[in-house]
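agent> Task received from the user: take the single chain below, predict its 3D structure, and emit structure tokens. No templates, no multimer pairing.
agent> Plan: (1) validate residues, (2) run structure prediction, (3) serialize to tokens, (4) report one or two observations.
agent> Step 1 OK, no nonstandard residues flagged.
tool_call: predict_structure(input=
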Amino acid sequence: MRVVFGLLLLCSLGEGAALPMVREVTCTAGKTILMEVEEGNVAVDGVVQFQSRVYRVDGEITFPAATIRMQAGEVCNLRVVNKLKGPQCTMVDGQNGFHCPDITSLHTHGLHVSPQEDNIDTHIQPGQEHTYTYTVPGDHLMGTHWYHAHHHGSTSLQALGGLAGILLVDPAPSYTLPLDLQRLYNFASVPPLILNYLALGKGRGNDRWKHNTHTSLVDLYKDVTVPLNLKWASTTLPNKGTGNFYVVNGVLSPDVEVIDGDATLLRMVHAGDGFHLTMELDDPEGLCTMTLMARDGVFQPTPYLQIPTIVLIQGTRADVAVLCNLPAGVYRRTVNMVATKTPSVNPAKQNTFSQASMMKLQVTSSSAPVPTTAAPLPAYLTSLMDEANVQVGGVRGVQSIVLKKGGTSGNSINGMSWPGWGYNGTDKYTEEFCLDQTYELTLGGNGKDRHNPDGPILSGESFHPYHQHV
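)
tool_result: status=success, residues=470
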């Protein structure tokens, strides 16, 4: 039996469109991929089109940007050429506000490589270029990752506008997946899915989070070098008229095939900005289950966890196996997958996006269970949960990291004012850590949990998820 479902879409627009496979380029054996950043047209068929900054990858512009495949043990070169027409922009040390809209860079999430290779301190001015060389270790775990433009001052503008894509790492030939995982991954019928947030409504959000839309972002820059030229196909805007919505592989309401009685893999990348996604099946008959296979490119421990919801905060990824079983004699069923808020919490206090979608179930014959065998992990992913020699705090004795956003003293780390991106003073480091030593730190912040708005959460969850650049 065959199951078809649509992800994250308003059904009145683009309903039933076929899911496309995003163009893929393979970057192995020292190959160089040309990525030209230029002004181009982004179109969601039958819904909207607008001008933005886009990637032309090896001569072809696509939205979303092309998926890049790397392989463990191989070298990949990404040559980024900035062809934007904006003027050269003078950067100020420590400046982190909205500035220099046409400076760009490239940053990856998930690659276990040197920080000199995935260098977040690169700044490619208009008319200039930079080649990023990634030496992927031979023991690098296969996984679902992503890349995006990362110049602090234009990240949201460029990434929301289209400068973001899927990055897949394939295993080295010597790596052997268990047979049940081989079938799930090597013969996946659904292409990788990138969930792009298109915030094309007017102004900023009217909730407590006050998220910028792409429209308001453009207006924040002194010089508008790439006019939006927004053109809607209909006066009825998607997602209850807001004009802020998600597309999957660049399409509203795509049909994604899932085989009834057969575990089907969904590799998802959340290329969003400020919102979290909590997705669940509106499935009162209990026809389908979801099992989390990998999170952020790392296989989960066994037994794999069956999950009622898929939670994706900004920039995260999830590999989920969907298994549906239709009742005897049933050949078609419609099930909604919903991006929803938590019912028990005031919606205004939740930084979670809300949007519905449709699943269309069709019948065919096949049967393959959800895998149960643990995937082998490389040494750098060894669990530290049972580590005996753990030092609480680092060399300077810092035992907790508390981030605070805003207030009279501005952004701060452990009560010290954060000077902003690019600051190079000697006091820029909060803590020091030694190689081959295990440390334990407590993270804290002043945001609000969508489930517990009156309590603390991990640093940065509200707007920028906590993560470390090495």
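agent> Step 4: summary for the user.
The CA atoms of residues 34 and 59 lie 8 Å apart.
agent> Done.
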